[in-house]
Write a sequence for this structure.
C-alpha cells in the first residue's frame, strides 16, 4: 500500500503499539535537520508528518483536522486546555503551540500508555514546549480526579479535547462535568465523530437538561461510583459538527464529518 503524496500511509489492521512509536522517536532524534528542529514546534510537527507520510501511519489528529482546532484556539483564546489521549504528542505540540501564541498558560495531556507518555515528554521538550505542556501518565479517570483534587490553579478547563477510546468519551465527559472540570464557559472538542462515530455521546451533548435528568433520576445530585459517571444534567451545550480530513486523506465514499464542537 502506498501513501498519497502529502498524506500519511494507510492505517492498516495493526496501526499502533507495534514498535513504530519508538521508530518515530529515533527518526526525530537522529533527523538530519535535528538542530533546526530543536525549539521549533512547527518543525517537530513537520518531522512527525514526514514519518507518517514516508514510514508508517500514526494515529495523530493530523494537520488538516488539527487546523480546525488551532483556528478555534486563536479565536477563543483559551487560557487552559485539557487533552484526553496524548499518544506521541502531535496534538499536544500543535495545540500547546497555538495556546502559547494565544497567550494561554497550561496544556495538560492525559495518556495511559507509559511509553507514549514518555515519547510525548521528549518531543514536547524538543519542540521547546515543556513549560506549557504537562503530561499526566495513567488512566484518564485517575488523572481527572487528581486534577480536580490538586486544582493546579485551574478550576474548570477552557477547552477539553477528547481523543482517547471513543466508547469512553461519554462516561469520561460526565466525570469531567461531575468534577467541575467542564463547566459553563468550557468548550469540548471531540474527535472522530463520524468514523467510527459515537451516537451516545452525540445524543448526550444535544439532550435537554430535563431529558438528561430523567435518565439519571433518582440519582441526580449524587456522585458516581468509580466506573460509571452521572454527569451534571443541568449543563446545556451548543453543538456543531465540523468537517475535516484524516491525515491519510479522505476516501471519496466516506462523509467527512469528524469533529464535534460543544460549548457549555
Ligand atoms: C488517537 S490517540 C491520541 C492522538 C493524539 N491526540 C494526537 O492527535 O496526536 C489515542 C490515545 O489515547 C490513549 N488512551 C486511550 N484510553 C485512555 C484512557 N482511558 N486514559 C488515558 N489515555 C487513553 C491511547 O493510549 C492513545 O495513545
Amino acid at each position: 500500500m502506498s501513501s498519497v503524496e502529502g498524506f500519511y500511509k494507510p492505517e492498516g489492521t495493526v496501526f499502533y503499539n507495534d514498535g513504530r512509536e519508538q521508530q518515530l522517536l529515533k527518526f526525530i532524534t537522529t533527523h538530519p535537520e535535528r538542530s533546526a528542529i530543536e525549539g521549533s514546534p512547527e518543525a517537530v510537527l513537520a518531522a512527525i508528518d514526514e514519518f507518517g507520510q514516508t514510514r508508517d501511519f500514526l494515529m495523530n489528529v493530523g494537520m488538516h483536522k488539527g487546523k480546525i482546532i488551532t483556528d478555534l484556539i486563536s479565536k477563543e483564546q483559551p487560557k487552559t486546555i485539557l487533552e484526553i489521549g496524548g499518544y506521541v504528542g502531535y496534538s499536544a505540540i500543535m495545540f500547546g503551540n497555538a495556546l502559547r501564541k494565544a497567550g494561554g498558560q497550561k496544556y495538560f495531556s492525559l495518556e495511559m500508555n507509559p511509553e507514549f507518555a514518555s515519547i510525548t515528554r521528549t518531543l514536547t521538550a524538543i519542540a521547546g514546549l515543556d513549560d506549557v505542556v504537562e503530561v499526566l501518565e495513567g488512566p484518564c479517570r485517575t488523572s481527572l480526579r487528581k486534577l480536580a483534587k490538586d486544582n493546579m490553579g485551574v478550576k474548570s478547563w477552557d477547552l477539553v479535547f477528547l481523543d482517547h477510546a471513543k466508547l469512553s468519551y461519554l462516561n469520561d465527559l460526565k466525570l469531567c462535568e461531575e468534577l467541575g472540570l467542564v463547566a459553563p464557559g468550557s468548550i469540548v472538542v471531540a474527535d472522530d465523530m463520524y468514523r467510527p462515530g459515537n451516537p451516545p455521546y452525540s445524543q448526550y451533548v444535544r439532550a435537554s437538561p430535563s431529558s438528561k435528568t430523567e435518565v439519571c433520576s433518582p440519582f441526580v445530585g449524587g456522585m458516581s461510583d468509580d466506573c460509571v459517571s452521572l454527569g451534571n444534567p443541568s449543563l446545556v451545550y451548543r453543538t456543531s459538527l465540523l468537517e475535516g480530513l484524516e491525515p491519510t486523506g479522505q476516501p471519496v465514499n466516506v462523509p467527512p464529518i469528524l469533529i464535534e464542537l460543544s460549548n457549555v
User: Anything to note?
Assistant: The mean pLDDT is 89. The pocket of S-adenosylmethionine is lined by residues 59-61, 85-87, 90-91, 110-113, 116, 139-140, 163-165, 168 (CB under 6 Å). The two ends are 43 Å apart (CA to CA).
